[in-house]
Amino acid sequence: MKLFAYAHEGFSGSIVTIEVDLRAGIPGTDIVGLPGAAIREARERVRASIRNSGYQYPRDRVLVNLGPADVPKAGSAFDLGIAFAILLCSAQIPHACIDAERVLVLGELGLDGRVRPVRGVIAAVLDAHASGITHVVVAAENASEASAVSGVQVHAVQRLVDLEHLRPIQTPPSEPRSSKGTEKSPFHDVIGQSRAKRAALIAAVGGHHLLLAGPPGSGKTMIARRLPALLPDLDDPIASEATRVHSLSGLLEPDQGLIRRPPFRSPHHSAGPAGVIGGGRGTTPGDISLAHGGVLFLDEAPEFRPGVLQALREPLEDGVIRLSRAGRQYTYPARIQLVIAANLCPCGLFGKGSGHCTCSIQEIQRYWKRIGGALMDRIDIRVPVTSFQGLADESELSASDDSEAYTSQRVRESRKRLSVLYGRAGSRNIRSFMSAESLSIFREAVTHMRLSHRAGESILRVARTISAVDDSPRIDEAHVLEAVQHRRMGESESVWQDWISCIETV
Fold first, then answer.
1. Is it the case that residue 180 has pLDDT exceeding 50?
2. Rounded distance, CA 476 to CA 198, Å?
3. Which of 104, 118, 481, 491 is close enough to 77 for a disulfide, judged by CB 3.0 to 4.6 Å?
């Protein structure tokens, strides 16, 4: 039987072979193969755990080799594998304890022989299964996480002595998901703001990035935080990647399997690059990776450090974040839906209705420049949000009754239509679904607003999504006009002046 462990290197890692040799000499334990500090300290943990579990620690010279020898290894997940290999090599545990030739072993040992859970189990199990390893020994608390990988037999242990009687756990069959016929909309208690709710629905269907701008108390944060409820469950590949990132960060709950619901991350505006982008000590993933498959919400976006905001540009395009540390590059997935909210001015009183803004035009311009034009150009939908006071009338109150139309079921149906009608059509193929009138309106908008090539493609993608939401087989003039309307704010010299003009046209 060969025992294996796992060395994490960012989002990926390497399968590590554990070899033990007992030879004559002064009693002691040597661990080779570029072990980190935690692995070097494992000698004492393993020794005490073996003795306190009723076994005899070998009185020979113990050599533990972790191969490949040129890969750095760190963490306490090697404890259980080293102890298991020593007990097998010293014939205190029979090789027949498990009917497998290759076994992945993960777990930290306590001095009393207890096996403690470790991080990154699902990452190790996924790579081990890809390498042909189908048997995994983990702590009982990590059993559900390891069982999320199909085709792998998981053996859960609570103490070191449990290695003598390994039995694969029985995973209950997954129950079919029942569709709820009376699903409640996340916007069922949101009064008014029909334009913002419509924009959130379009963003959820097409995965578009969203900007909500308006005075405090207008409902920007409320709408943004309810956007994930519109998103359908994650499919298996994205769920595995999202679970993997959360496992590496130690954020998985005990006995939790795959993450099925889209994650939602909302860092505070005082967060630094290491917290949002990732990195820091140990190159841990940041909020942008923890939101993979879900929503990254930046409230009070202009208050974030400019370096943090500008570092989001490449991940929004590529769907990954690359961190370079000490000659090595670590890659984490970052396919997110970015939602940012911002006041109109630093003091927040502009557009509020009550109170008077004391900010100068120069202060307001500097405030919005912190977001930057390059990041703003990547935001497909920009929504002006106003306080409900002053706009409440009979039509606005009655508009709140249609909020039940904004459900995850509608998003799923619209995504299916979007996939069936357009597939992976690029911007040129999208034009083939447009009438001559809608194409003329699009070209006129691009010319009049002096839009960049990226902005023009953004309008086409949003118009395509709107047609799917409206269950239309073609992109009509109304779809293009609505997409252009969602793009207007922020395309001229002043965002706050655009906000005024957009509000006046509502």
1. no
2. 18
3. 118
